[in-house]
Every structure is written in C-alpha cells, then in structure tokens.
Amino acid sequence: MDKPQHHLFVCGSFRANGTPQGNCAKKESLQLVQHLQGEIDERGIEGVAVAMTGCLNCCVNGPVVIDYPSGHWYKGVTPAIADEILDAIENGAVAEAHLV
Q1: In a domain, 36, yes or no
Q2: Is residue 22 a part of any domain in this protein?
Q3: What pTM, to 2 d.p., does this model score?
Q4: Number of domains within the chain
Q5: Tens of pLDDT along 23-72?
Q6: Could you tell me if residue 59 is inside a domain?
Q7: Under 8 Å CB-to-CB from 93, ≥6 apart: which residues?
Q8: 42 falls within a domain
C-alpha cells in the first residue's frame, strides 16, 4: 500500500507496562480494529489503514479513533459508528456527530 490518505488509529488502552487498563480496551477496541479492517477490505476502500495505539489519554471518550492526518478524533466508537466514519471517508466528509 502507498502512504494512506487516512490512517485510523484506535486506542488500545495499553500503558507503559504493556497492560490494557483503560476504557477503550474494556469496550472492545481490539474487536473494533478487526471490524474496521474487515469493512475496509469488504468495501474495497483504498488509501485507508488501521492501527492500534497505546493509551491516548482520552478515556472518558473511549473507544477513541483518530483519523490522521486530518486530526479528527472520534469518541465512543462502536462498529456502527465505525461504519459511519468509513461512509464519511468514502464521501469526502467527516462523521461530525461523533467528534470529540
């Protein structure tokens, strides 16, 4: 893949000691990564990559997804909200209802 136009970073709540402790991991952020990647593959969306991060220190809003390089932070992301984010990306828009 070339440099992605959108790189979605999903908070994994991992702390310095490597243990998932925050809200994002407890709210199934790992499954969210899997869902996003599956949807991207199924839809054939090009230019979008997904990665899991350590704790983003935004626990009250978790699970959090950051769209880089746009800088949009999405809160409370569920599989349904992830689909809305991907819909927005496909349409050149922003899923504004879910921004932090």
Answers
A1: yes
A2: no
A3: 0.91
A4: 1
A5: 888 899 999 999 999 999 999 999 999 999 988 988 899 999 999 999 99
A6: yes
A7: none
A8: yes
